[in-house]
Structure formats: C-alpha cells, structure tokens
Design goal:
- The complex is a heterodimer of chains A (370) and B (273).
- Chain A is an alpha+beta fold and 370 residues long.
- Chain A has 2 domains: 159 residues, Rossmann fold, CATH 3.40.50.300; 118 residues, RNA polymerase II/Efflux pump adaptor protein, barrel-sandwich hybrid domain (OB fold (Dihydrolipoamide Acetyltransferase, E2P)), CATH 2.40.50.100.
- Helices cover 24% and strands 33% of the residues of chain A.
- In chain A, the strands form 4 sheets. Chain A has a 6-stranded mixed sheet with strand order 6-7-8-3-9-10, sandwiched between helices. In chain A, strands 13-12-11-14-20 form a 5-stranded antiparallel sheet, with no helix packed on it. In chain A, strands 15-19-16-17-18 form a 5-stranded antiparallel sheet, with no helix packed on it.
- By secondary structure, chain B is mainly alpha-helical.
- In chain B, 77% of the residues lie in helices and 0% in strands.
- Classes of the chains: A alpha+beta (370), B mainly alpha (273).
- The interface between A and B is medium-sized, with 24 and 18 residues.
- Bound molecules: adenosine-5'-triphosphate and magnesium ion (MG).
- Adenosine-5'-triphosphate (ATP) binds next to strand 2 and helix 2 of chain A.
C-alpha cells in the first residue's frame, strides 16, 4: 500500500489547484443549519472520506459538490472554477448514490452507457468503453440483465461503472457500501481502493463507519453538527484527535480532566496529584485546565513497584475479559474514574479482578482534547 | 392445505361455487345479451325477442351500402373515436404535467389545486353539462366538436391526474438526479427516465380517458350542439325510434376492442415487471 507522508496531507493542494474546494459553505433548510460554514480542500487524486454520525450533514455536503443542492452561502470550486449555481449536468463530477439509483427500465449495458450517450459519443466508442468498464468491475456477461436481476454487490458495481465510465475528475460516493453485508463490504472496500488507484481520480467517500474511512481514505474529515471537527490522515486524527467528539467517534479512549502545571513543558497533574507528561505544543497556551486522553491499546499494565518510564497511573483491576487476540481490562484509578486497557496476549501472566496494577504509557501517546 | 380443504364439508364448497357463478351471470348477462341479439333475425323496429339466427346484421355493418344500412351510424362512430382519442390525448398530456407538479413541488395553492382537481369527479354530470352549456353560450364558443373536445378534456383531466399521481408516488427522486448527474438536461431526464418509468400509469390514464369520453352521454348531450352526433347520442336517438340490431354488432365490436386493449396492457405491464 502506498503511504502518504503526513506533511503532504495537510498541505496538499496548496501548490497545485485542488480538485474540490469549499469556501465557507453553509446550507440551511428553513431554520435548521445542515452544513455550517465548511471550508475544505481536496487535492488531486486523493481518496477523501467524509466521516460522521447520522444527520451530521455528510450527504448534504456531497450534494452541494454534485450540484443537487445549492448552498445558502459560500462558494464551490472544482479545479479552480467557481461552479456554484451550475446544474449537475454541467459539472465534471459523477456520483454513486446511497441507493445506487440504477435505472430499473434499462439494462446493465444501457445504464453504464447512459452518460456517454448523453454526451453524444459515437457508437463504436461507447461499445468499446462499456465493455472495458464492465471488465473493470467484473460484470462482463451481464450486459442484458436488468438491475432488478442483480445482487446488491453487483448493483453497487454497476453504479460505480456507470459513474466511472465518464472519466469524471471527481467521483462522489455516498455510503456506497451501506447496503452490503459485512463480508461483501470488506471485499468492496479493497476493490474500491484498487479501482481508485488504478484510474487515479479523486474520490470523495461519505461514510459513518470509522473503520471503513480509515481503511480506505488517505484524508479524513470528521464531521459533527454540520461542521468539520478534524481533518487529516487516518493516523494523524486517530493519534491526535484534538476534540473529544473525534476521540470517541474514532474508537475507545480514556479521557481525564487535568490541571496544567507547566504548559510549555507539557506537564499536567491528575486530581490525585500524579503528574503526566504530554507532547510539548499540544497543550493550549494560557489554560489552567485541560482534558487529556490515551487509547486503551497504548497502555501496558505492570505490577506495583516495577521500574518503568513514561506516564503512570495506579489503580485496581475491576474487570478482565479475555477475547482471544487480546484481553480487555477495566482499571479503577480513582473514585469515579476508570480506565479501559487493551493488552495483547503476549505473556502468560494475566491480572485478575482485585489485583493492584500500574497503567503505563508513552507520553507521546497522550493527546489533548477540547 | 390440500388435506384440510379435502376434508371440508362439500356443501360449503358447492355453495361457494354457486354463489360465484351467480355473481358472474349477474355481471355478464347484459353483455352476453347485447352480443347474442346482434345475431337475431328480428322483425319490425325492435330487437327484444329472439326470432332466429342470422349473419345479416354483421354483413350489413361490414359490407352494407351505407355502413350497416343505418344512416348516420358510421359518422357517429368516427366522431366518437376522434373525440375520445383527441380529448384523452389532450387530457393525458396536461394531466401528466399537473400530476408531476403536484407530487414534486411544494407551492402556494397546492392543496387548493388538489381539491379543485377532485371537483369535476364529484360534480353530478347533469350539473356539469348544463353549466358548461351555459358557459359556452355566454362565451359564444362554437357548439359542436370544439365544445365537446373542451368539455371532455376537462372531465378527463381529473382522472388522468389521479392515475398518474398514484404512479409517481413511489417514484425515486434519486433516479432523476442520477440522470442529471450523467449529463442529461431537464428535458432528456424527463424523456429518458421519468416518462419511461411512469409510462404504464400514463398509458392507463389514456385508456381510461378514452373509455370515459367514448362512453359519455350526459355532458355530450348538453354541449354537442345541433349537428354533432357522437355514438352514444346516436344510439339514444335511434332507441327512440326502435333499435336496429346493427347497434348490437357495433357494441360487440367496441366491447371486444376494449377487452383486447386491456389484455394487451396487462400483458405489456407483466413483461416489464
Ligand atoms: N431537503 C431537506 N429538508 C430539510 N432538512 C433536510 C433536508 N435534507 C437534509 N436535511 C437535514 O439535514 C441534516 C443533515 O442531513 P444529511 O442527509 O446531510 O445527513 P447525513 O450526514 O448524510 O446522515 P446519514 O448518515 O443518516 O445519511 C439532517 O438533520 C436532515 O434532517
Ligand atoms: Mg447520508
């Protein structure tokens, strides 16, 4: 797999013209603000994911880019051109709809050929490209079937082929895998990623599944209540989510209220007095209080009195559950405060409920949230 | 299932069959009589008692000198077919777009429009016929084919709108967005996606309008004017002087045509599904 250097992600599109740029885009339905002042840039050939819970405005954002919804305020740029107010059929983007929206009265072949026909390509060219496209999505031989005769996964691939055949410069995908069962979903995730790398066009993929977003995308925008909470590469936003919402949306995390002892040195103290260290620069300047967090799988458990380095918090095991690849512990660290810890089963020794333990983790893995 | 029904008391089953047969006899006796009396070798002006079998009236209709030997019937039939075709076509075109607007858009006066469209169906035909006549006379609108056409389009529109609306209700808006996404403009989207998808509803609406118009007597009687005679008006006139069996033959032909059109429509829809 191609890995993306982190510094490239955040600066992508600044030198080059971004494939998609939203400039302070807002969409209101009556009094309700579905998209709230969003600005973002998606660089050329990126796999960009819009991730967020149901109703956060992902589909609306995508529809604004596709031209199905006019923003109440703000400007949409595609490759530097202002396309706000342009009809969908005048935009160099294509969409894979959440419900696929295949034309039920047309065959697979006619569905895939639809866009080229509207653009008056000649017949030989259309036939060649449809055959090529059906080959890419492995549907050769199904040309004359109607969408109703296909399985969910096959329909999904027809929808993809129907959009991709037009060589759009940006492909919009609205939860294209939502209707598939888990196994097919996993297969199609890999398949989509393969196709994106093969055809080399910008994908904007909407999903509410954080695992899907992290598997496929090279940049993720986490949305909540119509705003972008966090934008960055999967590792970046997972390791340093910056907001409480992002931290919990992307997986389990242990959050702790702390007092700032020395902000510039990254020193903070738990209510009990134990001191923790945080990577310098993560603490907001001038704040007396802060909230820090650490992921369960970053924590090790050791017996009290062991010589260890890093952040430590003492506690007592209240629950231990063995789940095969790892063991999940719940450690009570202070009255009313518990930490979840996930430990790989590398050693035979396991702690039991009631054991006194020390939770240890690398200060680098401590993040600060708002 | 089979063992259960097998053990049921026989009388229940027999009763059910008798009831069913009786219901169908009741429904179809008039139709059968119309067809049968087209073959009656009748005496005199009336055709109410069975005398004997003859092909004469059928031969008259197809090979008679003045089309059935009955003056005016051919013109009346043509007039009705023309009226039914044109009025249903006009009503289907207008009604389809009205239905689209009512289902698609939220606009001021939308619910008022819905009620207004329902009114012609609820108004008694005599009331509608007489007020239309009054209106045409007040406007000095030419009575005859033009006034018939306007009147028939008017009462057909409501039925078309109801029929097409039912078809549109389950229509997935995303299909039209998908078409626009694939470079089809508004007209191409309608032509390639919306219309083909609602076509069964539109076609059914056309057939319904055709049948309603072809069949209409009361409103036509008011607005037809002195010279235009539709098929139902002609039969009405003829019946006052005695009914020639050629009417039965024509009725049989109309009935067979309608039934075959309906069957064709059903088969067509089945093939599409
Ligand atoms: N046409 C509309 N009229 C009124 N409100 C709307 C309209 N479209 C969307 N909304 C509202 O805007 C909000 C965002 O909707 P949107 O479809 O963008 O959510 P989403 O993030 O795609 O959610 P999901 O994951 O459930 O698809 C929702 O609260 C929705 O009710
Ligand atoms: Mg959505």
């Amino acid at each position: 797999m191609r890995s993306v250097p982190e510094e490239l992600v955040t600066t992508a599109g600044i030198e080059a013209v971004p494939a998609v740029r939203l400039d302070h885009v807002t969409k209101k339905f009556g009094d309700f603000t579905a998209v709230d002042d969003i600005s973002l840039e998606v660089g050329e050939n990126r796999f960009f994911a819009l991730l967020g819970p149901s109703g956060c405005g992902k589909t609306t954002t995508l529809r604004i880019i596709g031209g199905f919804e006019e923003p109440t305020a703000g400007v949409v740029y595609l490759h530097g051109d202002d396309v706000t107010g342009l009809k969908p059929y005048r935009r160099p983007v294509n969409t894979v709809f959440q419900s696929y929206a295949l034309f039920p009265h047309l065959t697979v072949w006619e569905n895939v050929a639809f866009g080229l026909r509207r653009r008056r390509f000649d017949d030989a060219e259309i036939r060649r490209r449809v055959a090529e496209m059906l080959e890419l999505v492995q549907l050769t031989g199904r040309e004359n079937q109607k969408p109703g005769q296909l399985s969910g996964g096959q329909q999904q691939r027809v929808a993809l082929a129907r959009a991709l055949i037009n060589h759009p410069r940006v492909l919009l995908l609205d939860e294209p895998l939502g209707a598939l069962d888990l196994k097919l979903r996993k297969e199609m995730q890999i398949e989509l990623k393969r196709i994106q790398q093969e055809v080399g066009i910008t994908f904007i993929h909407v999903t509410h599944d954080q695992e899907e977003a992290m598997t496929m995308a090279d940049t993720i925008a986490v949305m909540n209540h119509g705003r972008i909470e966090r934008l960055g590469s999967p590792t970046e936003i997972y390791e340093d989510p910056k907001t409480e919402f992002t931290a919990s949306f992307l997986g389990a995390s242990n959050l702790m209220e702390v007092q700032v002892v020395d902000g510039s040195a990254g020193r903070v103290a738990l209510p009990g007095g134990d001191e923790l260290r945080v990577p310098a620069g993560r603490l907001p300047a001038g704040e007396r209080k802060a909230k820090v967090g650490v992921r369960p799988e970053k924590i090790r458990l050791v017996e009290p009195g062991s010589a260890v380095q890093g952040n430590t918090v003492t506690g007592r095991v209240v629950d231990a559950s063995f789940i095969g690849v790892s063991t999940h512990y719940l450690v009570k660290t202070a009255p009313g405060q518990e930490m979840a810890v996930t430990v790989q089963n590398l050693e035979d020794h396991r702690f039991r409920p009631g054991d006194d333990v020390v939770c240890v983790w690398n200060p680098e893995h401590t993040f600060v949230v708002r | 299932m089979t063992t259960l029904t097998g053990r049921r008391p026989r009388w229940g089953r027999i009763g059910l069959i008798v009831y069913m047969v009786a219901a169908f006899v009741y429904l179809f006796t008039p139709v059968v009589l119309v067809i049968v009396f087209g073959f009656n070798d009748n005496r005199g002006r009336f055709n109410f008692t069975w005398v004997g079998f003859t092909w004469d009236h059928w031969r008259n209709v197809f090979f008679g000198e003045t089309f059935g030997g009955v003056p005016g019937v051919f013109d009346a039939l043509v007039s009705s077919l023309r009226l039914a075709f044109l009025s249903s076509l006009g009503a289907t075109a207008l009604g389809t777009f009205i239905a689209l607007a009512l289902v698609r858009y939220r606009f001021k006066g939308r619910s008022a429009a819905n009620v207004a469209l329902f009114l012609p169906m609820a108004t008694p035909e005599v009331v509608m016929g007489s007020s239309l006549l009054a209106l045409f006379i007040a406007l000095r609108f030419p009575l005859g084919f033009p006034s018939l056409l306007v009147a028939h389009i008017l009462f057909n529109i409501s039925y078309v709108v109801v029929t097409v609306k039912a078809r549109l209700q389950g229509f997935d808006r995303h299909l039209e967005e998908a078409a626009m996404d694939l470079y089809a403009n508004e007209w191409e989207t309608f032509r390639r996606v919306t219309l083909p998808m609602i076509m069964p509803g539109v076609f059914a609406a056309f057939l319904l309008g055709f049948a309603l118009s072809f069949d209409d007597f009361i409103i036509s009687n008011f607005v037809a004017g002195p010279t235009e005679v539709t098929f139902p008006l002609w039969i009405w006139g003829a019946a006052q002087r005695g009914i020639p069996p050629e009417v039965n033959v024509l009725g049989t032909l109309v009935f067979l045509t309608t039934v075959s059109l309906m069957l064709a429509n059903i088969l067509w829809q089945r093939r599409r599904a």
